[in-house]
Amino acid sequence: MTHRNTGRRKVGSTTVELTELGFGAAVIGNLYRTTSAEDASAAVDAAWEAGLRYFDTAPHYGLGLSERRLGAALQGRPRDEYVVSSKVGRLLVPNEEPRGVDSEGFVVRDDLRRQWDFSRDGVLRSIEESLRRTGLDRLDVVYLHDPDDHWRQAADEAMPTLADLRDQGVIGAIGAGMNQSAMLARFLRGTAADVVMLAGRYTLLDQSALDDVLPTAQELGKSVVAVGVFNSGLLSSDRPAEGMKYDYQAAPPDLVTRAQAIAEVCEGHGTTLPAAAVAFPNSHPTIINVTLGMRTAEQVGRNVELHRQHIPESLWDDLRARGLIRSDVPAANGPGRSARCL
Questions:
Q1: Domain 8-228+284-294 of CATH type 3.20.20.100
Q2: Of the residues 2, 25, 156, 173, which has the maximum number of CB atoms within 10 A of its CB?
Q3: pTM for the structure as a whole
């Protein structure tokens, strides 16, 4: 069944617009386990049929496999109808000492390895290679990928290079993506970034982005894309349990207990913990998109249904009152935030 498109929101002051729900392509790069080419293609097809038009990838994901698969699956679709983002900062170079399988979580051969490079030449080379792997004529959004330990070169060389390409019309929007929020606020305030990809720092279990990147984005009229909204899995099931992951590690018992408490409140309001986790980032007016990893057509269907669920405003009020989320979390449909369009 073909669904109508999700609502679209503009990236900062650019002309790029993202659908509210995005397709995260890391998993089709064989993140943690093998995904067949057929399943990867079917996932993109299902996302397209559901109205998703924002697709995010990176060279890091499967040592280029994610980019190749995403580009192949999008081939032949109207180019002006969808937005693709990729990332720079990790060049893929020949691996002189392969051991057979990638050591950074992707089930792929390690004939290539990643090499950090936020120089101007490195950025230009990375974009050129991403275009070759995807077969696309352009990248609509380009992020600096995990520049945590490379602030100076990323801010002084990589971001100005991306700004030049944006100003020439080669790229539509530029930014940075990280698992921390403080440096993302620095990128928004101190560089030409239009948007940041915020991983795991504005979720039902972690609202630390309210202290830095979210107010900065609101002040400057810039945008935020939210990823990692399940915090590596702890928020992905109706009933959180011991042994589940939180930020790539075994979840601490106190967080499991808190997630269980939130799940009970969700049930009392006629919804589920995963649906609330997907909806929660929309409580902040600067967050224009939630991107979720989608490995198969079945996962796409589940994620779309989670995103479509109506979440009563009373749920957030109840979570605030019980101290399960911060008291300064804004109302989901408060000033600057329209109702979700899906």
A1: yes
A2: 25
A3: 0.95
